[in-house]
Design brief:
The chain is mainly alpha-helical and about 160 residues long. Helix content is about 65%, strand content about 0%. A two-stranded antiparallel sheet has the order 1-2.
Length: about 160
């Protein structure tokens, strides 16, 4: 049994880079060569059962999990989900962009509904209804920034 390799492989199953599964070579690139693709392969296949603390810290950082994940503790709940999301470069960019603006509770709820549509089964009739509802509430502009600006301007005018 290779408990460490199994836990590491579970992280690989969940991780994505540009929409594709993460590879051993991606880890080498993301760590600037501090962990080689060959070393990752050895860890994943039980050829190396005892990685050093530095390796564990780097892997935890890359995958967005707590260091104790590798010791057998599950990283569940909101904090774990947030760390896993931030480990994905595309989602990190979205969070950074959202962090630059004040998001109202109404807009946060709309964002949650959009995520539901993106994650849902396209054949589900409820998804089509939700997608249509979101489309009716969306103002079409040339860019997302212009759309945000238009909503900000509307809000400021309403507050005056």
């Amino acid at each position: 049994m290779n408990a460490f390799g199994d836990r590491l492989n579970r992280l690989f199953e969940r991780a994505r880079v540009h929409g594709r599964p993460l590879t051993n070579e991606d880890i080498e690139r993301l760590t600037n060569g501090r962990i080689s693709a060959n070393h990752v392969w050895q860890l994943r296949h039980g050829r190396n059962h005892n990685p050093g603390l530095d390796t564990l810290q780097i892997l935890a950082s890359v995958f967005g999990v707590a260091l104790d994940y590798f010791g057998g503790y599950d990283d569940e709940g909101d904090e774990g989900a947030i760390r896993r999301a931030l480990a994905q470069p595309e989602l990190r960019e979205v969070v950074v962009r959202l962090g630059t603006v004040q998001v109202s509770p109404r807009d946060a709820a709309r964002l949650a509904r959009i995520v539901d549509v993106l994650l849902a089964d396209a054949d589900d009739p409820n998804v089509a209804a939700l997608s249509n509802d979101l489309g009716q509430n969306h103002r079409t502009t040339e860019s997302g920034e212009a759309s945000y600006h238009a909503r900000s301007t509307d809000r400021q005018a309403a507050e005056s």
